[in-house]
Specification:
Blueprint lengths: L1 E7 L4 H12 L4 E7 L4 E6 L5 H7 L5 E4 L19
């Protein structure tokens, strides 16, 4: 399973590398990809790992939080019945 998290406190590629390193060390994590520009981490794990566990793994400088899932809307879709009488 893969989840996306928001990371606060990263300012450079060194920060990015540090966050990746610490998150990869958490038991059950398969892979971590951190995007410095969007301040997001995509974490693939073997089983669900709590956000609190990730908080404990990171240095205090960094704050991790769950990213809200954005649902895209199709602006061309109509919810009204377009059947003509």
């Amino acid at each position: 399973m893969t989840h996306t998290y928001h990371i606060n406190g990263m300012t450079c590629n060194g920060c990015k590398a540090s966050v990746e390193k610490h998150l990869k060390e958490v038991d059950g994590v398969n892979s971590v990809t951190v995007d410095l520009e969007s301040a997001q981490a995509e974490i693939t794990m073997q089983y669900h790992i709590s956000t609190e566990r990730f908080r404990e793994a990171l240095p205090e400088k960094y704050k991790i939080s769950e990213t809200a899932v954005k649902q895209e809307q199709n602006v061309f879709a109509s919810t009204e019945d377009s059947t003509e009488a």
